[in-house]
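Progress note, sequence design subtask.
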C-alpha cells in the first residue's frame, strides 16, 4: 500500500475515533440536562422498555459514525494523493449515488422506525433524535470532506517516518510473484496428475 493511502487511512481513522470519544464521554453533557453514567445507565426503562437518554446518545453516535463513513466514500473516489478536489468525479458514476442513496435511506429508516419507541426501536436498538442531534450528526459527517483536504497537506515524507508496514509498498511485485508461484504450482500439479493417469493406463 502506498504512503498516500496510509496517510488517508491513519489520519482519517484518528479523526473519527476522536469524534466518537468526544460524543461518548461528553455527549451526555452536550445534549441532555442531566448527565448519566456510561457504564451503569440503562438504555431502557426496565419496566416499560421506554428508551432513556443513554439509548438516544448511542443512536446519535451510531448515526454520526455512519454519516462520516458515507461522506468519506466521496473522498475515496479520488485516489490521487495530491488532489484536493474530491468533487471532480462527483457525477461520473450514477451507480455510486444509487448505492449511497440506498445506504442513506436505510440509515434514516432505522432511526425513523426507532423513533416510535415500540417494536422497531427494540429490534433495531435505536430511538429518535432531537433536531439538534440530527444537525450535529450531519455536520460532523460532512466534516470529513474538510478533514480530507487538511490531510492532503501532511507531507508524505513525514508519513513515511511513521511505523506502518512499509514492506507492503511493493505489493504489486509481491502479487506478481504470488501469481507466478500459484501458476507454477497448478502446472506442476497438473503434470504430476497427468503422469499418474498415464502410468496407470499403461500398466
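Output:
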Amino acid at each position: 500500500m502506498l504512503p498516500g493511502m496510509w496517510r488517508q487511512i491513519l489520519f482519517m481513522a484518528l479523526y473519527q475515533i476522536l469524534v466518537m470519544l468526544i460524543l461518548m464521554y461528553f455527549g451526555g453533557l452536550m445534549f441532555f440536562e442531566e448527565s448519566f453514567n456510561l457504564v451503569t445507565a440503562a438504555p431502557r426503562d426496565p419496566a416499560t422498555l421506554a428508551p432513556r437518554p443513554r439509548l438516544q446518545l448511542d443512536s446519535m453516535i451510531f448515526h454520526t459514525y455512519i454519516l462520516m463513513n458515507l461522506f468519506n466514500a466521496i473522498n475515496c473516489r479520488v485516489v490521487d494523493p495530491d488532489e484536493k478536489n474530491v468533487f471532480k468525479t462527483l457525477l461520473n458514476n450514477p451507480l455510486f449515488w444509487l448505492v449511497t442513496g440506498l445506504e442513506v435511506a436505510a440509515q434514516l429508516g432505522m432511526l425513523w422506525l426507532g423513533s416510535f419507541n415500540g417494536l422497531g426501536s427494540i429490534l433495531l436498538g435505536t430511538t429518535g433524535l432531537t433536531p439538534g442531534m440530527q444537525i450535529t450528526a450531519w455536520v460532523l459527517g460532512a466534516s470529513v470532506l474538510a478533514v480530507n483536504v487538511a490531510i492532503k497537506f501532511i507531507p508524505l515524507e513525514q508519513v513515511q517516518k511513521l511505523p506502518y508496514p512499509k514492506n507492503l509498498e511493493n505489493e504489486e511485485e509481491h502479487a506478481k510473484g504470488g501469481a507466478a508461484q500459484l501458476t507454477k504450482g497448478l502446472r506442476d500439479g497438473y503434470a504430476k496428475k497427468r503422469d499418474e493417469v498415464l502410468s496407470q493406463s499403461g500398466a
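Residues 170-202 form one domain. Work on this subtask will continue into the next period as scheduled.
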